[in-house]
Amino acid sequence: xxxxxxxxxxxxxxxxxxxxxxxxxxxxxxxxxxxxxxxxxxxxxxxxxxxxxxxxxxxxxxxxxxxxxxxxxxxxxxxxxxxxxxxxxxxxxxxxxxxxxxxxxxxxxxxxxxxxxxxxxxxxxxxxxxxxxxxxxxxxxxxxxxxxxxxxxxxxxxxxxxxxxxxxxxxxxxxxxxxxxxxxxxxxxxxxxxxxxxxxxxxxxxxxxxxxxxxxxxxxxxxxxxxxxxxxxxxxxxxxxxxxxxxxxxxxxxxxxxxxxxxxxxxxxxxxxxxxxxxxxxxxxxxxxxxxxxxxxxxxxxxxxxxxxxxxxxxxxxxxxxxxxxxxxxxxxxxxxxxxxxxxxxxxxxxxxxxxxxxxxxxxxxxxxxxxxxxxxxxxxxxxxxxxxxxxxxxxxxxxxxxxxxxxxxxxxxxxxxxxxxxxxxxxxxxxx
Length: 433
Ligand SMILES: Cc1ncc(COP(=O)(O)O)c(C=O)c1O
What we know:
The chain has 13 helices and 16 strands. Helices cover 38% and strands 13% of the residues. It has helices at residues 18-25, 65-78, 97-108, 121-135, 149-160, 177-182, 200-206, 229-242, 298-311, 317-329, 331-353, 379-390, 416-431, and strands at 30-31, 38-39, 84-85, 144-146, 166-171, 186-191, 211-217, 245-249, 274-279, 292-295, 358-359, 368-369, 372-373, 392-393, 395-396, 408-411. By secondary structure, the chain is α/β, with parallel strands linked by helices. The strands form five sheets. A seven-stranded mixed sheet has the order 4-10-9-8-7-5-6, with helices on both faces. The protein has a three-stranded antiparallel sheet with strand order 12-16-15. Strand 7, helix 8 and strand 8 (245-249) form a beta-alpha-beta unit. It folds into two domains: 65-94 and 333-432, Alpha-Beta Complex (Aspartate Aminotransferase, domain 1), CATH 3.90.1150.10; 97-329, Type I PLP-dependent aspartate aminotransferase-like (Major domain) (Aspartate Aminotransferase, domain 2). The radius of gyration is 22 Å and the shape is globular. The structure holds pyridoxal-5'-phosphate. Pyridoxal-5'-phosphate is lined by residues 89, 148-150, 174, 217, 221, 249, 251, 279, 281, 287, 292.
């Protein structure tokens, strides 16, 4: 076991203040002013006895292999080569103009200063109206806070963090392991079923006394699966019985094609066990705006706010104004995006049906195909070769967890021409063996 001396620590700040919390959250040990004793931070790898309790530092976390693909693609583009990108996690639509105008109006009215870390009251009211109406989550103002969804994953994990805590993450699934490790926890993967649906028995089998949260993501990145109400209800019952929080990532809630999106938080009379994460990124094509929100019980929201206040203070007020505007007025754009993506999905499905080496489940939501390929090659190598020789960028399935190996993720967020030419090249690649 590592000794306490081998691990870094930071001396306490001369004057106590917000700084000491920031030190704590980065995983270092801090010395409490009162009583002059060593205190473990919520993320500490060592407890007071010097035992290793989990978590990792940034030094120990690798860069995402997705960056290798993006970097390679950028280098090719810089050399003047045309790259057909089916890798990108965003649709090619512009942010609707009225949303930009709402931001500009806010800037012109002097909204360039700090706001409450919770988000403006008007925005939180818009969030509450939206989740009550669309998600059937019975939230009140105290249950809502505005923050970037990606950061919300960290914040919600911090809100459940305890020494030696474990978080169940989907396999294959989005990048939840890194936030789990960096918030001091241990990610434990649960496999999705063969058709990528939620296997509640598998989840149950992975629960231990240290499990503090289960992350579910529907519609799912990278699988394009939409979970059914029945499975989500069964998961909810398990979590309530065991006192485990559900962290429900609903970033793609608006991009569901045939089924209906079901918010697991709607099962509760009022937010209690479910921490729901939402995003404006895909719904309103606002990926660069970094806009999202968390809906949960008041105590969790309070903890999330404590993190936000010390980490960022608040999000830009003009982004908040534009987000409130989008939530209240821009449903028609979301519908338009979904319909356009439906066409692109048909294009992808047709193209994939002509590639016998690829086997793809129906994409029910989001904008990703996640086919299994018949080839004795790791997915990182497949993605590398596709890019190097055929100038097509896709993401290797393995970056989404061990169960993603043998798959590639194909985004249909790109324009039709890119999908058509990119998939034609995919066909050539697989035909050439
Ligand atoms: C499943 C999932 N959750 C969360 C996020 C992060 O959303 P945002 O970019 O709005 O922070 C993404 C982004 O691609 C995602 O795919």
